[in-house]
């Protein structure tokens, strides 16, 4: 029997003062860093039935809504179900979801996702019957139907079972047909509103400046104005076509900027350090104390022909070892130097996480520390 505990000590001494190192500016197209406000997706939802399952569907007694839905569907098809009860498990009730893309037109197709509602064990081999998909306003925008594709599988016997992935959810590729278009159209807009995916005042101002520089040469006057850190409004020139204007603006290249940030996931040991993260000169000492406890119990037998009893005598060995604990000076004026300094310390990711937290507490980490 073996038990071990790991205790870590962290000593920080902050000495401020560092020089900034220039780095190459990051550039991107407007279409890659911003989205059009009127060009967002709309979520659709519906309730339907999957038929044709091989005994892996809902139990009609434990999932009464499945039986009610099946009876209602058959009655709509002109089949009477009064007085009869079914115990077959080849039907499953599912929730059907889809995303209606912007500017979608009637007749185009969508991928839909299906997820089991009852106690079905697998949706493999099933077929989704006609299901209407509604938006947040209650209007029906699409109708879905088709064979369900399931990536996971589940098999079981009397004494064992095996499962890989999730067998109670799947997709119907191109399974929905759009029946109604969205009320608003793109060319009905009087202006364009760009929404930054990563809100930042500097990037918003640079987008407006880039658009105005292009518009001044093309249309003779500026047309963009940054509203805040997330939105940039572009007024449509009278002589311009809105679709062509959008096609011209979305390919303009802009110098982007993001706040310095360090993202730490303690569960997985993942550390993501942004390019603008800087660390003032700091001395770090990271020591590791390991305590091992070994239990080796011994069995003691009584003497022959005696009236004694067999007993167990405990025996414990405790070993204490300490490694590391060397002091290193960490100075990270840029990302490359910071990563090299962390690697030179020679600690594992959990140790680097503790060091970053300590550097932040000491005030030497010039970035936002996000712990997930």
TrEMBL record:
Compartments (UniProt record): Bacterial flagellum basal body
Lineage: Bacteria, Pseudomonadati, Pseudomonadota, Alphaproteobacteria, Hyphomicrobiales
Family (UniProt): Belongs to the FlgI family.
Gene: flgI
Protein name from the UniProt record: Flagellar P-ring protein
Classification via PANTHER family: FLAGELLAR P-RING PERIPLASMIC PROTEIN FLGI (PTHR30381), FLAGELLAR P-RING PROTEIN (PTHR30381:SF0)
Quaternary structure (record): The basal body constitutes a major portion of the flagellar organelle and consists of four rings (L,P,S, and M) mounted on a central rod.
Primary localisation category: other
Role description: Assembles around the rod to form the L-ring and probably protects the motor/basal body from shearing forces during rotation.
Keywords: Bacterial flagellum, Cell projection, Cilium, Flagellum, Periplasm, Signal
Leader sequence segment: 1-21
Presence of the UniProt keyword Signal in the record: yes
Sections of the chain in a coiled coil: none
């Amino acid at each position: 029997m073996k038990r071990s505990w790991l205790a870590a000590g962290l000593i920080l001494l902050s000495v401020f003062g560092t020089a900034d190192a220039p780095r190459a500016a990051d550039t991107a197209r407007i279409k890659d860093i911003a989205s059009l406000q009127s060009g967002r997706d709309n979520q659709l939802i519906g309730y339907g039935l999957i038929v044709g399952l091989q005994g892996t569907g809902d139990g009609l007694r434990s999932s009464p809504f499945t039986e009610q839905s099946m009876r209602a569907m058959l009655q709509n098809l002109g089949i009477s179900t009064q007085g009869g009860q079914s115990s077959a498990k080849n039907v499953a009730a599912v929730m059907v979801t889809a995303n209606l893309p912007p500017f979608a037109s009637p007749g185009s197709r969508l991928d839909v996702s299906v997820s089991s509602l009852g106690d079905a064990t697998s949706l493999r081999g099933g077929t989704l019957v006609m299901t209407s998909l509604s938006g947040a306003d209650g209007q029906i925008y699409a109708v879905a139907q088709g064979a369900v594709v399931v990536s996971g599988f589940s098999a079981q016997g009397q004494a064992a079972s095996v499962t890989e992935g999730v067998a109670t959810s799947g997709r119907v590729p191109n399974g929905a047909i759009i029946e109604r278009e969205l009320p608003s159209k793109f060319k009905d807009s009087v202006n364009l509103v760009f929404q930054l995916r990563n809100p930042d005042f500097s990037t918003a101002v640079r987008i407006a400046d880039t658009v105005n520089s292009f518009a001044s040469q093309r249309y003779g006057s500026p047309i963009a104005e940054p509203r805040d850190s997330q939105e940039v409004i572009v007024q449509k020139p009278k002589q311009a076509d809105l679709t062509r204007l959008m096609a011209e603006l979305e390919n303009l290249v802009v110098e982007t900027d993001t706040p310095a940030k360090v993202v730490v996931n303690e569960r997985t040991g993942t550390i993501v350090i942004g390019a603008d993260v800087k660390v003032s000169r700091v001395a770090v000492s990271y020591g590791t104390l390991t305590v091992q406890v070994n239990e080796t119990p011994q069995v003691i037998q009584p003497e022959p022909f005696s009236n004694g009893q067999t007993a167990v005598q405990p025996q414990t060995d405790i070993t204490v070892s300490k490694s590391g604990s060397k002091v290193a000076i960490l100075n990270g004026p840029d990302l490359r130097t910071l990563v090299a300094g962390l690697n030179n310390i020679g600690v594992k990711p959990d140790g680097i996480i503790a060091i970053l937290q300590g550097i932040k507490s000491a005030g030497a980490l010039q970035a936002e520390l996000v712990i997930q």
